[in-house]
Amino acid sequence: MRDAAPALAEPLLWMAVPRSVRNNRTLSSLLLLGGGLAALLSWGPTTRNAGGRQMATINLIQPISSSPRGFQPLVPSAPSARSPDLIAGDFAHRPIQYPASRAVEVRAPVTAAAAPRVPEGTPQVEPLPIRQRPRRNRRSPVAREMFAETVLTAANFIWPVFVHDGEEDIPISSMPGVSRLGVDTGLLRGVEEAVKLGVKSVVIFPKTPDELKTPTADEAYNPEGLAQRAIRNVKQAFPEVVVYTDIALDPYNSLGHDGIVRSDGVILNDETIHQLCKQAVSQAEAGADYVSPSDMMDGRIGAIRDALDAAGYSNVGIMAYTAKYASAFYGPFREALDSNPRGPGEDWVVPPDKKTYQQNPANWREALIEARLDEEEGADILMVKPGMPYLDIIKGLHDQSNLPIAAYHVSGEYAMLKAAALNGWLDEKAAVMEALLSLKRAGATVILTYYALQAAKWLKEDEA
Ligand SMILES: NCc1[nH]cc(CCC(=O)O)c1CC(=O)O
């Protein structure tokens, strides 16, 4: 009984010594010597034991084997028979086998199975003097769930849908599992399914018939246009669903660019914004909750904000494609909407890419400029696009702005995962959930993904 007090008190006192002193070999030896003497005076015959325990508390400085009592394996006490999670955890797989002579100190876990064995040839080692063992918090499923820093839910997803003016669902070859949906048919079936799965936000992309495309993309603000019809249809059938739209001219532009193309190949900025404002107001009129400018023209967020407010739509939000990169990962999307930049005409230069307005993938500081401008101009959500190749940008914007951050897991990212999964090269569910989780962990609370419905299903599956 008598030695219990110093055995507890001295390590505690030791912990009160500043770490810098503890880590200094000479200083700490002196201190320990003093501590030992003090213990000797106050506790008489029990100090030898106390000293032994003292040594055990400083095993980062003193090799543990030199301790008079030898090492004392830090073995977790046996889990009770009532905690199946712990039993199912790593207790059954302790990596270190303790030397036989000390086996009495190793209490076996309470399981029906025989004592755990190690493979023949496993080196016999004394437990290392490791105080911080992060694996402790990963031992059981319950603990892992408790300590999860990021949790993905269906409420985080926005489901992007391609719509067309027809009845059928038309599969998109580079995106197996994704189709263009009929604006009055498949779209509503799809949204109904989404809602059932807990995905209550959609973003609409119209496949405009070629004959309606013009170099000034005026179809973009046709009140009876495909996007406007889609918005109305969804809001009418599912008023609680939050409808996001795309603001850019490319689906309506006969030259395939997000802005109006001048004959020398310059993508006009301010003239394009004029059209974007009309597009935004017409989408708001149709019932959009958020309009999402995806074109990367300068100053469009402020202009659209003013246009919406002037038209009485101050409650309609703006999800700004803040840092949208000139990425190769949009390929399948452009196939879905047939919206690739067109080849050059005889007397018209049409740039083959979008590099004069979308950001250079080499840059991240530039994204901060865009973020500051969008924030000042009245954006409600800042988006980064694509997702996985730009996790640093997501994190950067998350750390610099207090607005919600969105990440677009784009068509090419979907196609990559799908292709690997269809080939049997990846476990689709595990890989997709990890990809989506990484976007949230980086700082995105809003995730646009073609996997939204499938991921929501998987989440439900895991709940059950
Ligand atoms: N402004 C058009 C737009 N809006 C969303 C995407 C891409 C989405 C995806 O790839 O999933 C694009 C394509 C582009 O910029 O060329």
From TrEMBL:
Gene3D superfamilies: Aldolase class I. The keyword Lyase applies. Pfam families: ALAD. The keyword Lyase applies. GO terms for molecular function: porphobilinogen synthase activity; zinc ion binding. Catalyzes an early step in the biosynthesis of tetrapyrroles. Binds two molecules of 5-aminolevulinate per subunit, each at a distinct site, and catalyzes their condensation to form porphobilinogen. This is Delta-aminolevulinic acid dehydratase. The gene is hemB.
